[in-house]
């Protein structure tokens, strides 16, 4: 029995060792540090990043990585139409014309902003009103959502924070600039019976004050980082958050899901086969 336990522990140790080695090879690459730095620069609006994005597209690393950088840049600052068209052409030339479907789909769902939204880029106001970015974050002080991303607080977590605090009106101007409608309803809840009303005492649990609970639903997917941010928010605000979602996602999964399958040669009779 002891030999079996030792063998199982050795297998787990090997798995964790391989995982740590793989993560180490990704995190400590120079390009990884540069990418994180530039992404934070885009969010903070502190410097021009067009040259970096252009260089990443020319390297043709992966389609999803390059489109993620381009979409982040296009959503956080104004890009002239000429430069916008230039970047799209560079992506198509680097990865092929078969990715035109994906780029069109990304524009339709708003991942890549249209011309009107690019001209009136709302990011600066949204970032300021929701307090989404802080340049210098002390890693030892884990007292805000900035800690989750090392300077960036996820927008979804901030929206949840304002919703549970009842402060919608304070940021209504910024909410109106975010894609999607706003619906607010109040659902009456019946009060739980007390001891005087005939309710039974359940040991010492009834005497303890229970934390309020909020249900947060993500339709279309949520990232693990957003879940971590909401968990952090729950600890800060002394509130339980139950998160429900259709599925888990990330940037690469979102972009790959919007790719249309390539069309092959038509069959006899004119029908197309996927």
Can you describe what's shown?
The protein has 274 residues and is mainly alpha-helical. 53% of the residues lie in helices and 4% in strands. The protein has helices at residues 2-27, 30-44, 50-59, 63-76, 81-95, 100-109, 115-119, 123-129, 146-149, 155-165, 172-177, 224-237, 251-257, and strands spanning 213-218, 240-245. The chain has a two-stranded parallel ribbon with strand order 1-2. Strand 1, helix 12 (224-237) and strand 2 form a beta-alpha-beta unit. Helix 4 runs antiparallel to helix 5 (81-95). The protein is globular, with a radius of gyration of 24 Å.
Q: How do the strands and helices of this protein lay out in sequence?
A:
Elements: H1 2-27, H2 30-44, H3 50-59, H4 63-76, H5 81-95, H6 100-109, H7 115-119, H8 123-129, H9 146-149, H10 155-165, H11 172-177, E1 213-218, H12 224-237, E2 240-245, H13 251-257
Shape: globular
Q: Detail the poorly predicted runs.
A: 203-208, 262-274
Assembly annotation = single chain
Biggest sheet strand order reads 1-2
Bin the strand percentage: under 5%
* Spatial separation of the terminal alpha carbons: 54 Å
Strand segment tally: 2
Rg to the nearest angstrom? 24 Å
Helix content: 40-55%
Structural class: mainly alpha
Average pLDDT confidence is: 80
Total helices: the number is: 13
Element string (H = helix, E = strand): HHHHHHHHHHHEHEH
Major beta-sheet overview: 2 strands, parallel
